[in-house]
Amino acid sequence: MGFRITKAVIPAAGLGTRFLPATKAMPKEMLPVVDKPAIQYVVEEAVEAGLTDVLMITGRNKNALENHFDRVTELESTLEQKGDFQRLQKVEYSNDLADMHYVRQGDPRGLGHAILRARMHVGDEPFAVLLGDDLIDERDVLLSRMLEEQSERNATVIALMEVDPASAHLYGIATVETTDEDDVVRITDLVEKPAPGTAPSNLAIIGRYVLQPEVFEVLERTDPGKGGEIQLTDALLELARKDIAGGVYGVVFRGRRYDTGDRVDYIKAIVQLAVERDDLGPELRPWLKSFADTLG
């Protein structure tokens, strides 16, 4: 059995240009998904899987992220005086979710570079990486399954999801071999955004990784790729091809995933999550049906 992982790294230094002007002064990670910022869903997922030490990789104008997971004594006092204990509980909940840490990325040199900034905090331990654009439904198991496989195999584990072959050129795509587990494959090759019609499979990388600490050494020597960025996919490819630190395995996720990195998908995520809530669904579902009827 491998080392019990407790550390999660959440890269959150992006500029969120696809959501301008909303993200001109507010981090994209703080955009609300129903009534919680997207980043809180990600931290909650990490904590639910047993990862209580969370390092967020931030950038300029990201102070709102730190503020969200900190005390707001004036607001808490006001709610307490009003007797609004339901809202007070929601406000206080994020204060103590995890042991939160923050470090700035500095130069925006890609996901691989952001993960390198976690090296001093992580040390010589396996760790998880959660990307904020991908929200995993809390009713579906992914991260804890990945941690389980990492412990069993003492290897890097990434999350994969089947996508429409026509959309494969939008993702990092894996070439795989089967294993003794139906939902686990061994990665033999990776290609980032293959040309249409050339993808080796329809298994796409989604934003969850459990990495061996050896990834830092590989990232250090990984040459910048497109746009001068250090790509995590390039480092994963070297780990897989050279079978470094146990190689790379993939857990194939067949549950519900919500993409908040694209405007249309972000709106879809809000609607999907809202209609299934007990406090919003009963009123929202019939309205949606009625509204859809008016569209013809």
Briefly summarize what is shown:
It catalyses: alpha-D-glucose 1-phosphate + UTP + H(+) = UDP-alpha-D-glucose + diphosphate. Helix content is 34%, strand content 23%.
| CATH architect. name of the largest domain | Alpha-Beta Complex
Mean pLDDT: 92
Instruction: Output the helix-strand order.
Output: EEEHEHHHEHHEEHEEEEHHEEHH
Strand order of the largest sheet: 5-4-1-6-11-8-12-10-9
Tally of contiguous helical segments: 11
- Give the CATH topology of the largest domain: Spore Coat Polysaccharide Biosynthesis Protein SpsA, Chain A
Kindly report the name of the CATH homologous superfamily of the largest domain.
Answer: Spore Coat Polysaccharide Biosynthesis Protein SpsA, Chain A
Q: What is the terminal-to-terminal distance?
A: 57 Å
How many independent structural domains? 2
Shape, please? globular
Largest sheet: 9 strands, mixed
pLDDT below 50 for ≥5 consecutive residues: which ranges? none
What helical percentage do the residues reach?
25-40%
Rg (CA only):
20 Å
CATH class of the largest domain: Alpha Beta
Number of strands: 13
Approximately how much beta-strand content do the residues carry?
15-25%
**SS-based class:** alpha/beta
